[in-house]
Specification:
Layout (H helix, E strand, L loop, with lengths): L11 H5 L9 E6 L2 E11 L10 E7 L1 E6 L3 E5 L3 E4 L5 E16 L21
Antiparallel strand pairs: 1-2, 2-7, 3-6, 3-7, 4-5, 4-7
GO molecular function: isomerase activity
Keywords: Isomerase
Pfam family, one: Cupin_2
Length: about 120
């Protein structure tokens, strides 16, 4: 018989305090095949899309702008946005933003674009 342990709460602020790098998501939990990642961002990211999955942005602190080819969306703390799969987008933060991402395991932050801003995958805090 397998004994399961009760889950422990995850504190976003505590996890975010463990690193300083921008645009480098860190995994804090998994549910089925989905990962919950905290990330700090500042400045401009790259245009990219994810062909096989939607991407969820939940703003914990700050204001994030997500550029789309035809418009911009501004998100403040306490707001979220789901970017549908295949939709090209580019996040931008004038000042540091702390957020939670929800994505399937193995998703690369820059999608198919690659380049210098591609983060290491499966890094836990």
């Amino acid at each position: 018989m397998t004994t399961s342990h009760p889950p422990s709460p995850v504190n976003f602020a505590e996890k975010l305090a463990l690193f300083n790098e921008h645009w480098q998501p860190r995994i804090i939990a998994e549910m089925n095949d989905y990962q919950f990642k905290v990330v700090k961002v500042e400045g401009d990211f790259v245009w990219h899309s994810h062909a096989d999955t939607d991407e969820t942005f939940i703003i914990l602190e700050g204001v994030l702008r997500i550029d789309f080819r035809d418009r911009q969306v501004h998100l403040a703390a306490g707001e979220m946005l789901v970017v549908p799969k295949g939709v090209e987008h580019k996040p931008f933060a004038e000042r540091e933003v702390k957020m939670l991402l929800i994505e399937p395991r193995g998703v690369i932050n820059t999608g198919e674009e690659g380049g210098d801003m591609t983060a290491s995958n499966d890094v836990w805090v």
